[in-house]
Amino acid sequence: MILVGHFSARHKDHTARMDAAEAELTAAGARVVGRIVQRRGVSAGGAAKMDQPHSARTVLSSGKAQEAAALCARTGADAAVFVTPVTDRQRALLAELFGCPVLGPLSARPG
């Protein structure tokens, strides 16, 4: 599987969050074959938009979504796990694009 995260540039701990998610998945017996990180910095929208997704449809920018899809195809990933929240609709759209199931954050799953 691959790990995917969308983080504001304000959040300096994104690497630690990705590492913790990978450790949790590995402890559960999963094999993480790649990571995709989308950072959102200050841009035309200003600091107020830093915590917003790049796209309401997919969370990620179109380029980053294509990069994740290519990584899934290249590695034969059986799933993409988001470290950051995604809606059911976003998960469905991304699963179609990635060619594998898309799962929400580990902390949001029943235990």
Describe the model.
- The chain has 111 residues and is an alpha/beta fold.
- The chain has 3 helices and 4 strands; from the N terminus they run βαβαβαβ.
- Strands 2-1-3-4 form a 4-stranded parallel β-sheet, with helices on both faces.
- β1, α1 and β2 (34-40) form a beta-alpha-beta unit.
First-last Cα distance:
20 Å
CATH class: Alpha Beta
Assign the CATH architecture.
3-Layer(aba) Sandwich
Tally of individual helices: 3
Protein name: GTPase HflX N-terminal domain-containing protein
Summary, kept brief:
The chain is 35% helix and 17% strand. It is α/β, with parallel strands linked by helices.
Provide keyphrases for this structure.
single chain; 111 residues; alpha/beta; Rossmann fold; 4-stranded parallel β-sheet; 4 strands; 35% helix; globular
